Amino acid sequence: SLYSTVEDLYRWDRALRRRELLSEEGYKAYYKPEKRNYAYGWNVSTPKGRRTISHGGGINGFLSFILRVPDEELCVVVISNLVPSQPEKIARDLAAIVLGDEYELPKPRKVAKVAEEKLERFEGKYRLAVGMVVELENAGDHLIGTSAGQPDIAFLPESDYSFFDKPTGMRIEFDPKKGRDAGFTLHSNGQEIKAELLTEDSE
Fold first, then answer.
1. Sign of the C-alpha dihedral, residues 42, 46, 52, 58?
2. What is the pTM of this model?
3. Whole-angstrom Cα distance, residue 196 to residue 76?
4. Listing from the earlier edge strand, what are the strands of the sheet with 52-59?
Protein backbone atom coordinates (compact mmCIF):
# COMPACT_ATOMS: atom_id res chain seq x y z
CA SER A 1 0.00 0.00 0.00
CA LEU A 2 2.37 2.66 -1.26
CA TYR A 3 1.38 6.24 -1.96
CA SER A 4 2.91 7.93 -4.99
CA THR A 5 2.29 10.61 -7.60
CA VAL A 6 3.07 11.16 -11.26
CA GLU A 7 5.83 13.57 -10.20
CA ASP A 8 7.37 10.98 -7.85
CA LEU A 9 7.53 8.37 -10.58
CA TYR A 10 9.03 10.87 -13.00
CA ARG A 11 11.76 11.62 -10.42
CA TRP A 12 12.33 7.85 -10.15
CA ASP A 13 12.78 7.70 -13.93
CA ARG A 14 15.24 10.62 -13.82
CA ALA A 15 17.29 8.99 -11.05
CA LEU A 16 17.48 5.74 -12.99
CA ARG A 17 18.48 7.60 -16.14
CA ARG A 18 21.29 9.46 -14.33
CA ARG A 19 22.66 6.14 -13.01
CA GLU A 20 22.43 7.39 -9.42
CA LEU A 21 21.14 4.23 -7.75
CA LEU A 22 23.07 1.14 -8.90
CA SER A 23 26.45 0.14 -10.27
CA GLU A 24 26.75 -0.35 -14.02
CA GLU A 25 26.66 -4.11 -13.52
CA GLY A 26 23.60 -3.67 -11.34
CA TYR A 27 21.81 -1.76 -14.09
CA LYS A 28 22.61 -4.47 -16.64
CA ALA A 29 21.08 -7.11 -14.36
CA TYR A 30 18.14 -4.83 -13.47
CA TYR A 31 17.02 -4.54 -17.09
CA LYS A 32 17.99 -8.01 -18.33
CA PRO A 33 14.89 -10.10 -19.18
CA GLU A 34 14.86 -13.43 -17.37
CA LYS A 35 11.53 -14.89 -18.50
CA ARG A 36 9.05 -13.74 -21.18
CA ASN A 37 10.63 -10.28 -21.44
CA TYR A 38 10.36 -9.82 -17.66
CA ALA A 39 13.43 -8.43 -15.89
CA TYR A 40 13.79 -7.34 -12.24
CA GLY A 41 10.45 -5.55 -11.92
CA TRP A 42 10.28 -4.35 -15.54
CA ASN A 43 8.81 -5.59 -18.78
CA VAL A 44 11.49 -5.04 -21.42
CA SER A 45 10.57 -5.14 -25.12
CA THR A 46 11.50 -3.54 -28.45
CA PRO A 47 8.31 -2.50 -30.30
CA LYS A 48 9.15 -0.77 -33.61
CA GLY A 49 12.82 -1.30 -32.78
CA ARG A 50 12.69 0.93 -29.70
CA ARG A 51 13.82 -0.45 -26.33
CA THR A 52 10.85 0.03 -24.03
CA ILE A 53 10.79 -0.52 -20.27
CA SER A 54 7.42 -0.59 -18.55
CA HIS A 55 5.29 -1.90 -15.71
CA GLY A 56 1.76 -1.61 -14.39
CA GLY A 57 0.25 -1.86 -10.94
CA GLY A 58 -3.09 -2.04 -9.22
CA ILE A 59 -4.54 -2.19 -5.71
CA ASN A 60 -7.91 -1.48 -4.07
CA GLY A 61 -9.49 0.73 -6.70
CA PHE A 62 -6.31 2.17 -8.21
CA LEU A 63 -4.42 1.36 -11.42
CA SER A 64 -1.16 2.72 -12.78
CA PHE A 65 1.32 2.33 -15.61
CA ILE A 66 4.80 3.69 -16.28
CA LEU A 67 6.35 3.46 -19.74
CA ARG A 68 9.95 4.45 -20.44
CA VAL A 69 11.76 4.73 -23.79
CA PRO A 70 15.33 5.49 -22.68
CA ASP A 71 16.82 6.20 -26.12
CA GLU A 72 14.15 8.85 -26.72
CA GLU A 73 14.38 10.22 -23.15
CA LEU A 74 10.66 9.58 -22.89
CA CYS A 75 8.76 8.68 -19.73
CA VAL A 76 4.96 8.41 -19.53
CA VAL A 77 3.16 7.88 -16.22
CA VAL A 78 -0.60 7.28 -15.93
CA ILE A 79 -2.35 6.88 -12.57
CA SER A 80 -6.08 6.17 -12.29
CA ASN A 81 -8.53 5.96 -9.39
CA LEU A 82 -11.20 4.50 -11.67
CA VAL A 83 -11.52 0.72 -11.96
CA PRO A 84 -11.76 -0.68 -14.51
CA SER A 85 -9.74 1.67 -16.69
CA GLN A 86 -6.92 1.40 -19.23
CA PRO A 87 -3.79 3.17 -17.96
CA GLU A 88 -1.52 1.01 -20.13
CA LYS A 89 -3.38 1.84 -23.34
CA ILE A 90 -3.47 5.52 -22.43
CA ALA A 91 0.29 5.49 -21.72
CA ARG A 92 1.08 3.72 -24.98
CA ASP A 93 -1.14 6.09 -26.98
CA LEU A 94 0.48 9.12 -25.35
CA ALA A 95 3.92 7.72 -26.18
CA ALA A 96 2.79 7.11 -29.76
CA ILE A 97 1.71 10.76 -30.06
CA VAL A 98 5.13 11.95 -28.88
CA LEU A 99 7.01 9.49 -31.12
CA GLY A 100 4.88 10.13 -34.21
CA ASP A 101 3.47 6.58 -34.29
CA GLU A 102 -0.09 5.52 -34.99
CA TYR A 103 -2.58 5.66 -32.15
CA GLU A 104 -6.31 5.15 -31.74
CA LEU A 105 -8.59 7.75 -30.18
CA PRO A 106 -11.28 6.39 -27.84
CA LYS A 107 -14.65 6.01 -29.49
CA PRO A 108 -18.07 4.84 -28.30
CA ARG A 109 -18.98 1.31 -29.33
CA LYS A 110 -22.49 0.22 -30.25
CA VAL A 111 -23.94 -3.12 -29.23
CA ALA A 112 -25.25 -5.11 -32.19
CA LYS A 113 -28.02 -7.70 -32.12
CA VAL A 114 -26.65 -11.15 -32.89
CA ALA A 115 -28.78 -14.28 -33.01
CA GLU A 116 -28.20 -16.71 -30.14
CA GLU A 117 -27.35 -19.58 -32.52
CA LYS A 118 -24.55 -17.46 -33.98
CA LEU A 119 -23.10 -16.88 -30.52
CA GLU A 120 -23.09 -20.65 -29.88
CA ARG A 121 -20.53 -21.03 -32.68
CA PHE A 122 -17.87 -19.41 -30.52
CA GLU A 123 -18.30 -21.44 -27.34
CA GLY A 124 -15.18 -23.28 -26.25
CA LYS A 125 -11.86 -23.02 -24.48
CA TYR A 126 -9.05 -20.93 -25.95
CA ARG A 127 -5.41 -20.62 -24.94
CA LEU A 128 -3.89 -17.15 -25.19
CA ALA A 129 -0.30 -16.76 -26.38
CA VAL A 130 0.65 -15.73 -22.82
CA GLY A 131 -0.50 -19.16 -21.53
CA MET A 132 -3.86 -18.17 -19.99
CA VAL A 133 -6.92 -20.29 -20.87
CA VAL A 134 -10.21 -18.46 -21.48
CA GLU A 135 -13.58 -20.19 -21.81
CA LEU A 136 -16.29 -18.47 -23.84
CA GLU A 137 -19.93 -19.27 -23.12
CA ASN A 138 -23.11 -18.15 -24.84
CA ALA A 139 -25.18 -15.90 -22.53
CA GLY A 140 -28.11 -15.42 -24.92
CA ASP A 141 -27.25 -12.00 -26.32
CA HIS A 142 -23.50 -11.85 -25.58
CA LEU A 143 -20.52 -14.02 -24.65
CA ILE A 144 -19.15 -14.56 -21.15
CA GLY A 145 -15.39 -15.03 -20.81
CA THR A 146 -14.10 -16.93 -17.78
CA SER A 147 -10.55 -17.62 -16.69
CA ALA A 148 -9.12 -19.09 -13.49
CA GLY A 149 -8.50 -16.44 -10.86
CA GLN A 150 -10.03 -13.64 -12.96
CA PRO A 151 -13.46 -11.96 -12.83
CA ASP A 152 -15.91 -12.93 -15.58
CA ILE A 153 -16.04 -10.62 -18.59
CA ALA A 154 -19.16 -9.83 -20.59
CA PHE A 155 -18.17 -9.57 -24.26
CA LEU A 156 -20.90 -7.63 -26.06
CA PRO A 157 -21.31 -8.07 -29.84
CA GLU A 158 -20.52 -5.17 -32.15
CA SER A 159 -20.81 -7.47 -35.17
CA ASP A 160 -21.25 -11.19 -35.87
CA TYR A 161 -17.51 -11.75 -35.32
CA SER A 162 -16.35 -8.95 -33.02
CA PHE A 163 -17.06 -8.53 -29.30
CA PHE A 164 -16.00 -5.98 -26.68
CA ASP A 165 -15.90 -5.46 -22.93
CA LYS A 166 -17.62 -2.16 -22.19
CA PRO A 167 -15.70 -1.13 -19.03
CA THR A 168 -12.19 -1.69 -20.44
CA GLY A 169 -12.67 -1.49 -24.21
CA MET A 170 -10.95 -4.87 -24.59
CA ARG A 171 -12.02 -6.64 -27.81
CA ILE A 172 -11.94 -10.14 -29.26
CA GLU A 173 -12.21 -10.73 -33.01
CA PHE A 174 -12.81 -13.92 -34.95
CA ASP A 175 -11.98 -14.58 -38.61
CA PRO A 176 -15.31 -14.31 -40.52
CA LYS A 177 -14.28 -17.16 -42.87
CA LYS A 178 -12.73 -19.60 -40.38
CA GLY A 179 -14.81 -18.82 -37.30
CA ARG A 180 -13.70 -20.25 -33.97
CA ASP A 181 -11.44 -22.90 -35.58
CA ALA A 182 -8.82 -20.20 -36.16
CA GLY A 183 -9.13 -18.95 -32.58
CA PHE A 184 -9.45 -15.23 -31.97
CA THR A 185 -7.35 -12.09 -31.59
CA LEU A 186 -7.53 -10.23 -28.29
CA HIS A 187 -7.05 -6.46 -28.56
CA SER A 188 -6.05 -5.08 -25.16
CA ASN A 189 -4.05 -2.02 -24.10
CA GLY A 190 -2.82 -1.43 -27.64
CA GLN A 191 -1.59 -5.01 -28.02
CA GLU A 192 -2.80 -7.92 -30.14
CA ILE A 193 -2.68 -11.35 -28.52
CA LYS A 194 -3.56 -14.51 -30.44
CA ALA A 195 -5.68 -17.25 -28.89
CA GLU A 196 -5.98 -20.81 -30.21
CA LEU A 197 -9.01 -23.06 -29.87
CA LEU A 198 -8.36 -25.97 -27.53
CA THR A 199 -9.55 -29.40 -28.58
CA GLU A 200 -9.71 -32.51 -26.40
CA ASP A 201 -6.32 -33.53 -27.78
CA SER A 202 -4.67 -30.15 -27.13
CA GLU A 203 -6.03 -29.88 -23.58
1. negative
2. 0.66
3. 33
4. 43-45, 52-59, 62-69, 74-80
Pairwise CA distance, residues 162 & 184, whole Å: 9
Q: How far apart are CA 66 and CA 38, in angstroms?
A: 15
Q: How does residue 203 score in pLDDT terms, banded at 50, 70 and 90?
A: low
The span from the CA of 142 to the CA of 146, in Å, is 13
Distance CA 192, CA 105 (A): 17
As beta bridge partners, residue 128 has 195
Question: E strands within the chain?
Answer: 43-45, 52-59, 62-69, 74-80, 124-128, 133-138, 143-146, 153-157, 162-164, 171-175, 179-188, 191-197
Fill in the amino acid letter for 188.
Answer: S
User: CA–CA separation, 97 vs 19, rounded Å?
Assistant: 27
Q: Specify the pairing of strand 62-69 against strand 191-197.
A: unpaired
Tens digit of pLDDT for each residue in 16-72?
A: 999 989 999 999 999 999 888 899 989 999 988 899 999 998 888 888 999 999 999
